[in-house]
Amino acid sequence: MASRRTHRRHWAAVAVCAALALGGLAAPSHADEPAAATAALTDPIPQKPVQSRTGLVLQEFAQFPKSEPVPAPTDPRLMRHARINTINELPDGSGRMATPDLNGTLYLTDPGTAMRTSGGTPHSYLDVKAAFPHFFSGRGLGQGFGYAAFHPEFGANGRFYTIHTELASQATETPDYQQAGTLTYHGVITEWTADDPSAAVFHGTHREVLRIGFTGQVHGIQQIDFNPTAKPHDKEYGLLYLAVGDGGQGGGNSEPQNRTLPHGKLLRIDPAGRDSANGRYGIPASNPFVGEPGSLGEIYAIGMRDPHRFSWDAGGSHRMYLGHIGEHAIESVYEVKAGDNFGWSEREGPFAFDKKTTDPCARILPLPADDAQYGYTYPVAAYDHDPGPDWNCRSDVGRAIAGGFVYRGKDAPALRGKYIFGDLVDGRILAADTRDMRRDAGLAPLEQLMLFDKSAGKTVTMRDLAGDQRVDLRFGSDRSGGLYIVSKANGKVWKVTGTRTFADCEIGNTPTTHTTGADNWAPVTPAKWAYTTRETIMTEPGVARPGPRRPFEYAVLTAGPSYSSVSVEAEVRIDTPVEITNRDVIVIWDYQSDTRFQYTHLSSDNTIYPHNGMFTVNDADRLRIDDQWNGTFGAPPAIKDDGWHKVRLTHCADTGETAVYLDGSRNPLITATDPVFASGRVGFGSFDNAGRVRHLKVTGTAPTGSSGTV
């Protein structure tokens, strides 16, 4: 992982985070803001999340019943097993967990039963859909019953709050606030009061608190919640936050900067008060825009497109973080303070957004030199849509952030102090250290966490667990800081019960001491090899041979034993000139024969299937097995120059887990799991280039009866 100092230098170099502002109550008019003269950014955030050795151990917690949108949708993205949005613990000491389903039901789950049975059975607590005759959830990704927030004194007063949507053409109520034009739907905040807060099923009353009209089909009221870190004596105790989107109006939408409307804002209200315009809630006097002419007092922060999820860190100074879905390229995490302006639609993440151009490939630009005058707040963490060289910026690549939580639980100490979030489409789970997530420090480095299925004891992906390419990932938490993973695809919830380190096994301590000289190597083509006292050199490229597709030229280390678990450390260099594309060298392990072995391909190119990954040759054409290949590109290029690079490969025979580290990094560049061979030898070579290896050190476990010949 890049150090914070290196990361800051990088952003300074590209002028991305120049002159960050810490917020401010108002941004100057942009009518006279000059058009950017610099070229558009097609790969805005070159620093990608690094692969972490740490993996979340997941245990299935609950399976939710299948549900159907109303009316039946035509958008396949709404056809989920259950459109569950989160899971959170009720603040009444009962340990019960609440889960809203967009299709209309609020569920409660007993966590004791869930963990004992490795799959709890939620029960319906409240049918929100049945309470409202104009309820609808069959159009727009966020429509329906979106969220439930329980008052911090729910155990005593029985109050909680919900969001639901109603079709504008059928609704009989007039919105308190609305966008210009023909409305598509209303977002409605409702207060419920339970007669008996401890009851298994809701009985009580409800009243409408706030109604907002939207002209689009997406980006409505995404989340409502109380600050769980606030104490009874705090000014914001019992205040309700509302994340209100821009209504899906696109890049030309100016309403997120318009303080007379709630759209594209984070609001904060007092449900117990009555001094609002509609007389149904209060406006906290501590809100940043209270008393300002032309500004709604409800507004806490402005300039948002789709403020998807927010949460507070239970530790430290209880900072608030918000995951924000971008227009086309940037997924961001903000630290939120009163009066912040995230800049939409003048800014997308830490970049200028050109909303005047008709070319979608030219919308993301570096910040202007005079950016500080506008007073925008920029993300503390972000990732882009990993466009790659063949990215078609005219079509949505289908990624969006799922905001999460700072982990402060007891089950996974390795995660403490890290903000855990992910991508709701492909299900990748990411982490950023809160020590790096500072408003004046550029973007925090990101790690991609691995996943382990507790019941199966092996690595998985969220796509594996969800059984679908579109995971629809969400997160949840309990009152002790525990973390939960949610998928709409199959309506399941998993609890994080701990962490595990990938490829962390007892390697063994049997060394091979002779790793240089012709007598210790068996090449495919001896005439193509040379040896010095320190180096083993492949002097010219190999050529393809009959049989399965595999590396053209390599040499197997014949000295020492064959190994089961093994550690290979070396320095490697590619001798092919850097002007040539597709340069590579390989490191072999588990070699049994010319058509049975595994290898890692260390290449200057990560955009084609055969390059920069891990592969198995098992009497058939090489099969790619690494975790990093996503169908378009793999891990970042390993070797792009003519210098020496340190490589360390660790292979665990019992699990088949293998990790490759480059140049002393503590995080692996490439990982894979394939226990196909029980043991074998190591080697070095290339597919069709030339290169060399030196300072080779091999240590591991020698199986009983291992011989010294190939």
Task: Describe what you observe in this structure.
This protein is mainly β and 710 residues long. It is built from five helices and 44 strands. Strands 1, 22, 23, 24, 25, 26, 27, 28 and 29 form a nine-stranded mixed sheet that branches. Strands 30, 32, 33, 35, 40, 41, 42 and 44 form an eight-stranded antiparallel sheet that branches. The chain has a seven-stranded antiparallel sheet with strand order 31-34-43-36-37-38-39, with no helix packed on it. The longest helix is centred in the N-terminal third of the chain and has 10 residues, at 4-13. It is elongated. The two termini are 38 Å apart. 51% of the residues are buried. Mean pLDDT is 92; it is low at 1-29.
